Amino acid sequence: MVVVNDEKLLRIMEEMLTLKRSELRRLEAAYKGVIEYDKWVVPKEGIKGSRFDSTLLNKVYIGNIVAPRDSVQDLLSVFGPVSVTCIGNKECAFADFDNPHAAYLCMREIDGMVFEGRALKVGRTSTFPSEIPKELRPPDESIVYISNIDLNIEEEQLEDIFKKMGEIKGVRLVYESSFMHKGYGYVQFSRCIDAKKALGYSNKISFCGRRMRIGPSVVKMELPERSYFAIPREVFEIKKRIESAIFGTGKMVVLRNLIGVDDADDDFDQEMENEMKKYGDVVKFGVSKEGEVVVYCLYSTEDEAKHSFSILNGRFFGGRRIRAEMSWGEFPL
């Protein structure tokens, strides 16, 4: 055992020990920051003077995949605009998304998914930073990221969908340098608890034939400025009145590709009627079995019909994908 009596030397040793402990705590915090990337990430803004490349947050590695590039592109594009590079001899692919929210949502939803007969292994690329800079800030948990949005949908229509989950502060679609948006946007709720509720509806809300993906925002951000390409609410209301005058009110939902004619018995009819009643007040219900099985359901309001359509369109039923449509015609049965 060594005994040190020199007070100056003791003080120097204590200072060195304090510095070493501080360095270890800093490294531990940086390590935890990387491990807990789903909650803590680096903002694109505020990293001035740093050599950190924020675009690294947009990149994803996909292993155990052997498929044509177009097929991989189709698989990933539901999360947002993406550039795909496939390396066939390595049985892997690299995806470079438009934003970090899309990259995180992709990892969360397809890791372990069976694609072309193989279970995908999805994660960060080897270039992902080993240490997160000091400019780290927590993401705003009241903002959710929405992708796979039909190009004909406007911000007001998105608001109509998500306001049923809670009070909304704002909705923004991200536009190209044209009148077409990029197929993704953001919804900010007044309460974080409502935003978390919305996350549970990813791949469950279908609108205009597309199932929207919903994920958390993973960088500190504010809603983008409203694009001058976006339709103002006053113009959107006029647009809705014109469409209503031309097409009338659509209260009927029509379902196809459900089951073969030979398999459609009375039990099937009753099962479908009970299912349709889950989404609203059914005024008339009927099943046509001439040539193909077609289900017709007339609701009391257009909102009920839209709700039924959004849930059933694209859903699998007995191994088949349901084709739903809204009709403004008279009940045919």
From TrEMBL:
<dbReference type="InterPro" id="IPR051974">
    <property type="entry name" value="PUF60_regulator"/>
</dbReference>
<dbReference type="GO" id="GO:0006376">
    <property type="term" value="P:mRNA splice site recognition"/>
</dbReference>
<feature type="domain" description="RRM">
    <location>
        <begin position="58"/>
        <end position="127"/>
    </location>
</feature>
<dbReference type="GO" id="GO:0071013">
    <property type="term" value="C:catalytic step 2 spliceosome"/>
</dbReference>
<dbReference type="InterPro" id="IPR035979">
    <property type="entry name" value="RBD_domain_sf"/>
</dbReference>
<dbReference type="InterPro" id="IPR003954">
    <property type="entry name" value="RRM_euk-type"/>
</dbReference>
<feature type="domain" description="RRM">
    <location>
        <begin position="142"/>
        <end position="219"/>
    </location>
</feature>
<keyword id="KW-0694">RNA-binding</keyword>
<dbReference type="InterPro" id="IPR012677">
    <property type="entry name" value="Nucleotide-bd_a/b_plait_sf"/>
</dbReference>
<dbReference type="GO" id="GO:0071011">
    <property type="term" value="C:precatalytic spliceosome"/>
</dbReference>
<dbReference type="GO" id="GO:0003723">
    <property type="term" value="F:RNA binding"/>
</dbReference>
<dbReference type="InterPro" id="IPR000504">
    <property type="entry name" value="RRM_dom"/>
</dbReference>
<dbReference type="Pfam" id="PF00076">
    <property type="entry name" value="RRM_1"/>
</dbReference>
<dbReference type="GO" id="GO:0000381">
    <property type="term" value="P:regulation of alternative mRNA splicing, via spliceosome"/>
</dbReference>
<protein>
    <submittedName>
        <fullName>POLYADENYLATE-BINDING PROTEIN 1</fullName>
    </submittedName>
</protein>
<dbReference type="GO" id="GO:0000380">
    <property type="term" value="P:alternative mRNA splicing, via spliceosome"/>
</dbReference>
